[in-house]
């Protein structure tokens, strides 16, 4: 393993030593108490999870510890630093490294330059004695291998990387950046299952080096796989801190949302013996997709599973007009269509919900009302003029129907991830499409918001629409879908019925990873 050299006093310190202490921490924004008197400690050589529903205050706490925000009241002290952390520069000096959900990647920089990004500022590290780095060195390649990116060239531009690769590239900086505390704020939201092992390996190395790791996440299976303790926040208050070995997912979920979460039964598939498919795809080539064929029937929820680079996103974007098909046909309700743009796709009854809601899902400078009505404004217009009364009435109905926090005039960008996703879903479903493609629909949202999204998907299918859910989470697709298609190397290599014996996450992952004799 390649790692930045630790400070002498840290290297000799025993694991379990106090790393930071938060006392009476409050953070207030206009009209909102994001944190309300939180007392919490973190220790060296351990992984502390911070869990909570959207808006519970977990990311706010992470930002306070990293110096990105300043407490309204209370303080956070880092062991070995003279005074409470007051800004990001002081947090860096204290040895706090924060890895964000949206990774800081400079597209016009090479992969190697992005690895060493923090040491390239003004040509030097924050330590004046640090040596100039070689971004194309053997050390850089070893760092990339440690996070599953050993196949990348150090001199290729980072702008060509996918979401999962960008997140892992960001995480690679942990090996070359001085730190005593590492915060992972929803950093697994953009990564796929094969990269999670790389993250586990990274965390194991950090623990062995005596780092205190803070893991902010909605993914409870990952929390239990990685963490030693779990701190649960709800409505800005610290509810409880439990050892992972002494609790389970049901208890943590109940603590997070204040009640037990009812299991959602997958709706029965519609009888399709004589039904015409909503969408039929034949021999589709586009992006990394190679000769893909499948049907989606009325009322059917079909999952599309695959690892990074499998071609699942290429299929999603090609059948929704985001990309032009090189070859093949797409048929909607029996009529062959040519989809040269997302607008054309929508006119033909196909809607696409992007996996990157912050970049492509909504307009940041628009409020909830403006974002929700954006797609259907022509339907609300008379003589080219939008009927404002009708628009406002419908927006209020949508906010209630989709359980969106905040009113019509609340900026969507200010909402939690789960509520942002509900706004995006509401916007596209208001167009009443026949076929809906949802690309990673629950990425970065908590268990309560996930349940809301699942209910919405169930309602869409119950109305006889076709639904395609693209996801890197096998467990999610098994609980949500009637059929699951598995992709590898641009092709569909397997089809599963979740109700069949032997169909589980292991079966899906093995199919996505390994070639078989039929394929050879």
Tertiary shape:
globular
The assigned CATH architecture of the largest domain is 3-Layer(aba) Sandwich
Please state the CA-atom Rg, rounded to the nearest Å. 24 Å
Major sheet size, sense and barrel closure: 6 strands, mixed
Structural class: alpha/beta
Regions with little confidence, pLDDT below 50 for 5+ residues: 1-14, 515-520
Number of strands: 21
- Looking at the structure, the CATH topology of the largest domain is Rossmann fold
CATH class of the largest domain: Alpha Beta
Describe the structure.
With 520 residues, this protein is an alpha/beta fold. The chain has two domains: 8-15 and 45-57 and 96-257, P-loop containing nucleotide triphosphate hydrolases (Rossmann fold, 3-Layer(aba) Sandwich), CATH 3.40.50; 279-513, Rossmann fold, CATH 3.40.50. It contains 18 helices and 21 strands. The strands form five sheets. Strands 5-6-7-3-8-9 form a six-stranded mixed beta sheet, sandwiched between helices. A hairpin with a 2-residue loop joins strand 8 and strand 9. Residues 1-14 and 515-520 have low confidence and may be disordered.
